[in-house]
From TrEMBL:
Catalyzes the attachment of tryptophan to tRNA(Trp). Signal peptide: none annotated. Its EC number is 6.1.1.2. The keyword Lyase does not apply. Keywords: Aminoacyl-tRNA synthetase, ATP-binding, Cytoplasm, Ligase, Nucleotide-binding, Protein biosynthesis. Belongs to the class-I aminoacyl-tRNA synthetase family. It is found in: Cytoplasm. L-tryptophan binds at residue 135. InterPro entries: aa-tRNA-synth_I_CS, aa-tRNA-synth_Ic, Rossmann-like_a/b/a_fold, Trp-tRNA-ligase, Trp-tRNA-ligase_bac-type, Trp-tRNA_synthetase. Its main location: cytoplasm. This is Tryptophan--tRNA ligase. The lineage of its organism: Bacteria, Bacillati, Actinomycetota, Actinomycetes, Kitasatosporales. The keyword ATP-binding applies. Homodimer.
Amino acid sequence: RPRALSGIQPTAGSFHLGNYLGAIRQYVALQETHDAFYMVVDLHAITVPQDPAELRANTRLAAAQLLAAGLDPERCTLFVQSHVPEHAQLGWVMNCLTGFGEASRMTQFKDKSARHGADRATVGLFTYPILQVADILLYQADAVPVGEDQRQHVELTRDLAERFNGRFGETFTVPAPYIVKEVAKIYDLQDPSIKMSKSASTPKGLVNLLDEPKTTAKKVKSAVTDTDTVIRFDAEEKPGVSNLLTIYSTLTGATIADLEQKYEGKGYGALKTDLAEVMVDFVTPFRVRTQEYLDDTETLDSILAKGAEKARAVAAETLADAYDKLGFVPAK
Ligand code: ATP
Ligand code: MG
């Protein structure tokens, strides 16, 4: 089986609809076809200031949501990044293989440091894409399910894998991004020119999966569309409506063509009312399942401990091989 690897940050409490459609849904699907590793990336979370109690709670909350979304610990390896020390260890190696200029070209760093105030950005935030390289390479991943915003980091991973393999001999699998085009970028409901994002979205444009279902319905119903009345998919001319059609289609399995036909001659109100219902039907059981996992921290922690054990077995083997290739004397 090919390997898949992805990570998600525990920082915002609730995941949002962009995280789910752009990434987590693919995590669930890839369990069937891949030897899949998924982790809550707490090492990445501390690239910006974190309250310790909140970080701890959010890490468990992230894991609970991943399980609620359909990750099955029998069919994938779910773990917390800091439980596997090899991430930081291979991260250092990758830091030493990356050019300063090369790291400076990462647009996510530019965006995020601008948002946090350039002078307050940490070195950790600057090098986080390189830690991500290590995250992926440790598992010899073939496929990395992510949204469009992460494509550049997977490209960096490919470059560094090839660089290491070229200098020291075949060590790492060169991974490919696994990006589902239709859902690679879900947009803010209030401003369909920007991506839905926990840190950049407007509160009304950001659909958190753990919002009260009533709030979710309200956000969908007040989504920004356009002054035209026709319901058709046209990302250029009608970004708001197209975003709603993408969400609707992905959650229900109806094709965009089916939906265009269904809403022919009907107004935006009808589309939004129906989509609000679809969303409520999706988030209601999701919230219940998440809470069930949170109510039983013992089970949750033991799922994560087992996952870490499985992950470590793979990561340790890769790290040992990389250390050996680098010329480190074995410690025994
Ligand atoms: P931030 O704004 O802090 O980067 P985020 O909202 O992008 O946060 P992340 O934790 O960075 O959330 O992303 C987790 C996963 O969700 C990544 O694979 C990312 O590509 C994907 N993702 C995030 N936002 C969207 C979106 N609007 N559409 C599709 N995929 C998304
Ligand atoms: Mg992001």
